[in-house]
Amino acid sequence: MSGYLSFIRDKLMASQEEKIPQCAILGLEGSGKSSVISRLLYGTVSDDQPMQQTCFINVSYGKSTITILEADEETSRESPYFQDILGKIDGIVFVIDSQSLRHVEASFEYIFSLFDKIPQTTSILFLANKTDLPDSVPFPDLLQDPAFQVIMDDINRSVSIYPVSIKTGENFYTAFDWVISRMTGRTPLREEVTPKRVIILQEGGVPAFDHTFDASVEEHDSTLLGGLISALNIMASTIFESESVMDVVKLGGMKMVIRKMGGWSIVLFVDRDDSESKAQSLAEEILNAFQEEKERDPSKDLPKQIKYEFLTKIPEIAILLDQQPERDDEY
Ligand SMILES: Nc1nc2c(ncn2[C@@H]2O[C@H](COP(=O)(O)OP(=O)(O)O)[C@@H](O)[C@H]2O)c(=O)[nH]1
Ligand SMILES: [Mg+2]
């Protein structure tokens, strides 16, 4: 193991010369580190892929390339090579297993043991993972943890925390956008995304919201599209025996980025060559804003009465809407 780590350290030094940002994925055994790498590489997580202890790999994210290093607990605590690496890395992702209180507490204990060794300039992203599990520790409870309060009070650091499910992808790209933009100094990737149309579907594929941003986009019937997407998802989950949905479907000059959260699905049409991870995080933001709007006023009838005010909460979309003629009368 130490031979491999000294090899990795040398490799990291070399990639520092090439100015490729470097990120370490840390967390206790079983928290979801390898799943992070799998999602970054393949866009999905499956239960039967080989899971590794230590992994060192370059991945592309939007238009950036980053070097990712997964290190297990023992390595991160004990290896002097790893201590070297930790002092020079650009970003750290700590995966917190939120499946139970015991796991959360163990995670914070682990984070504390390393915290002093991380330079102040290193951005730290905490992923409160496994939010898809019904008994997982609720995010507000996790934020109340005294250990976490201490970490957040360290105002000199660039730190952020997101509740995510690496398995289903929920919130994952929003969280990664944060750390990647900190590490690369690039503006968020959604600038590299051109939303053309958004459709929000209820369970079963019934359209609840539909808005076209680009007048040149041909308006396919949203009920038909909803039916198609829900059929694709049922097929995908039956054939692959997984709860995840189709992520991206390319059609002609466009692609549909599909996310599913809490019974709702969103389909965001973007340019075929747009960044998928950016489009996914944008789709998540739109769906979150939509769900908030619904929660605020559940009596609102869909689809007729919800207009697109909720879209204006998302800066990038608000800009698009400003450029459009008023279309209120459509709903
Ligand atoms: N339910 C659920 N399981 C997850 C999630 N992320 C990872 N897992 C599972 O947790 C187990 C350990 O994940 P792995 O990535 O190997 O953890 P590592 O030891 O930190 O690398 C695997 O069975 C994963 O499928 C998640 O968000 N939700
Ligand atoms: Mg692993």
Would you mind describing this structure in some detail?
The chain contains 11 helices and 11 strands. The radius of gyration is 21 Å and the shape is globular. The model has no long low-confidence stretch (mean pLDDT 82). Strands 2-3-1-4-5-6 form a 6-stranded mixed beta sheet, sandwiched between helices. By secondary structure, the protein is of the alpha/beta class. The longest helix is centred in the C-terminal third of the chain and has 21 residues, at 276-296. α1 packs parallel to α4 (80-86) and α8 crosses α10 (276-296). It has 2 domains: 2-186, 3-Layer(aba) Sandwich (Rossmann fold); 191-330, Beta-Lactamase (2-Layer Sandwich). 40% of the residues are buried. The protein binds guanosine-5'-diphosphate and magnesium ion.
The value of Rg in angstroms is: 21 Å
Bound molecules: guanosine-5'-diphosphate, magnesium ion
The percentage helix is 25-40%
Q: How do the strands of the widest beta sheet line up side by side?
A: 2-3-1-4-5-6
Order of helices and strands: HEHEEHHEHEHHEHEEHEEEHH
Poorly predicted sequence stretches spanning 5 or more consecutive residues: none
The mean pLDDT is 82
| Second CATH tier, the architecture of the largest domain | 3-Layer(aba) Sandwich
Largest sheet: 6 strands, mixed
Sheet-strand content, in percent, reads 15-25%
Structural class: alpha/beta
Distance between the first and last residues' Cα: 62 Å
Please state the overall shape, judged from the principal axes of the Cα atoms: globular
Please indicate the count of domains: 2
The total count of helices amounts to: 11
* Strand elements, count: 11
CATH superfamily of the largest domain: P-loop containing nucleotide triphosphate hydrolases
CATH class of the largest domain: Alpha Beta
The CATH topology annotation of the largest domain reads as Rossmann fold
